Amino acid sequence: MPERLAETLVDLWTPLIILWITLPSCVYTAPMNQAHVLTTGSPLELSRQSEDMRILSRSKRGWVWNQMFVLEEFSGPEPILVGRLHTDLDPGSKKIKYILSGDGAGTIFQINDITGDIHAIKRLDREEKAEYTLTAQAVDFETNKPLEPPSEFIIKVQDINDNAPEFLNGPYHATVPEMSILGTSVTNVTATDADDPVYGNSAKLVYSILEGQPYFSIEPETAIIKTALPNMDREAKEEYLVVIQAKDMGGHSGGLSGTTTLTVTLTDVNDNPPKFAQSLYHFSVPEDVVLGTAIGRVKANDQDIGENAQSSYDIIDGDGTALFEITSDAQAQDGVIRLRKPLDFETKKSYTLKVEAANIHIDPRFSSRGPFKDTATVKIVVEDADEPPVFSSPTYLLEVHENAALNSVIGQVTARDPDITSSPIRFSIDRHTDLERQFNINADDGKITLATPLDRELSVWHNITIIATEIRNHSQISRVPVAIKVLDVNDNAPEFASEYEAFLCENGKPGQVIQTVSAMDKDDPKNGHFFLYSLLPEMVNNPNFTIKKNEDNSLSILAKHNGFNRQKQEVYLLPIVISDSGNPPLSSTSTLTIRVCGCSNDGVVQSCNVEAYVLPIGLSMGALIAILACIILLLVIVVLFVTLRRHKNEPLIIKDDEDVRENIIRYDDEGGGEEDTEAFDIATLQNPDGINGFLPRWGLPTQRWEERNAIQTGCV
Ligand SMILES: *[C@@H]1O[C@H](CO)[C@@H](O)[C@H](O)[C@H]1NC(C)=O
Ligand SMILES: *[C@@H]1O[C@H](CO)[C@@H](O)[C@H](O)[C@H]1NC(C)=O
């Protein structure tokens, strides 16, 4: 057996074989007596080590032949012997010298160059440097010539349990819901041990709890912390301090340990119902408080926190459910009672409400513990307030006919003082709403009378404000709008809807409609207008025109024959009587002017006698030029006239109106209206005989009429 092993060694390690002699277990017990020998690989030399080899083979360990071991943290009086280099080369006469080089050669490891003993001269720390790589060589003592190639080997620093476990991330914080079941996982912690984790138990950790029992437990190997009691109550105790220990050497005595703390906070679950602080609340409120005003607050306390403490408030019963409402104030977690409808002390002086607070976020796990709500009673006392007068209606609508007599009563308002000490009321009209003082009011009974006549055609509505004042307290004032509608009375006669001017074609046919007219009436009868048209009684048998009423309330004027001729008669006047359907009916006579004109075959008016008639409103460019030419001509005449007179040395005095009339055309600005037959008719200047039969014109302002004639006279 030793021989076979030796052969293997020779195969592996020629020429230098590094041999480890000691057993690891021996190192702990008697390190001082042990030495490591490195020897060159001759079978002979190895046989000398056969006794040691037998020990090695018995240990059944894997051998690493190029390693030496040295214990860390060794501190004795003498340097510790790590091992020995030895070569079995035949030195002959030469002396052999051993040379060591590599990590720590000479500083940490020292070699006796004659004996080959290697000593560690410094204390070693495996956690700092676990192995050193060195090179050994045998050289000729005299010449320093290498006797064989250098050989590399490793000195491993052997672990001892010199590091305690450490919790690098501690202290720890964790949360777990209150009321959790036993064994609920809370968190896990980890400790680290710097010692060699693969060799020995120096880094084998076991966890335990030093403080924090019986609430929490820890799994020794995994360090998972769990609850050890069921139903821990946050409302009883919220925070727990747990001290955790990690111990190496598998927890055996002699091992090193480290501790950390874990703070466990129980989080809230909704396991508590709300509870009103009082079962009865008293509030009082003046009857005239503004709607929406907060009257009082009720609060149900809840031992839970956050949303688990949130409650919604409701009025669930009582005689004031219609008048009051409660809103939940999420911020203050209380309920605010507000007024929803007006109070009246005189009607009801107190109310009782039953209010309820109910948790919003119910946890089904605990709903069997009972309803998560509570109720309380709220008593509200209404206090009397001095209130202003109250009108019998919030608005009034009065209707009055426009012909109502002055001082007649058109309506009445009433008001009363709602207070128990009912004060008499005085009424007045807010004059800002009746600037024209159209109405009066009786201060005592509120009867409204007419002060000035009404005209519906001027104003249909008179919207005024009536003021009621308490006699005993003038500051108690109320106002009410009163809309007065003026009803129609038939006080306006119908008339033509516009100024019509009709044209009649000389070549027209009998029965032809020459004009359609409609009427208007300022009144506003309920069933709309219905007009009756007729010719004046003396004109009923008019040989020239006839009238025909149309469906749409309008009237058509028809020519009766085709014998009209401008030369014979240029203009016809047709008075028409229009009456309305009022009771009694009103009527008026309007006169239609009909001009005879020359027309084309298809009935388009070509020319009436006077061009201006064809252009009744705007003057054409040609007409303007004509007017201008007229004025210049007149000026020339005047200048000539004056110069001639001067030449005759006659004073410039107009002696005789007739002289002027001969020469100057005068514009009479004072139009006399329809009946002004005295208006200056310039046409007579040109045609003193009046052969064209010009009659006084109704329905046209005289001035315009004369202007047109002026154009005709001067220039056409
Ligand atoms: C007056 O009041 C009536 C009824 O409220 C309303 O219809 C009308 O428009 C008002 N008239 C004026 C001029 O304010
Ligand atoms: C009818 O017209 C003729 C001339 O065409 C005239 O003489 C007569 O006065 C007219 N009658 C009426 C009633 O206008």
From TrEMBL:
GO terms for biological process: adherens junction organization; calcium-dependent cell-cell adhesion via plasma membrane cell adhesion molecules; cell migration; cell morphogenesis; cell-cell adhesion mediated by cadherin; cell-cell junction assembly; homophilic cell adhesion via plasma membrane adhesion molecules. It is found in: Cell membrane. GO terms for cellular component: adherens junction; axon terminus; catenin complex; synaptic cleft. It is a single-pass type I membrane protein. Its main location: membrane. CDD domains: Cadherin_repeat (cd11304). InterPro entries: Cadherin, Cadherin-like_dom, Cadherin-like_sf, Cadherin_CS. It holds the Pfam family Cadherin. The keyword Cell membrane applies. This is Cadherin-8 isoform X2.
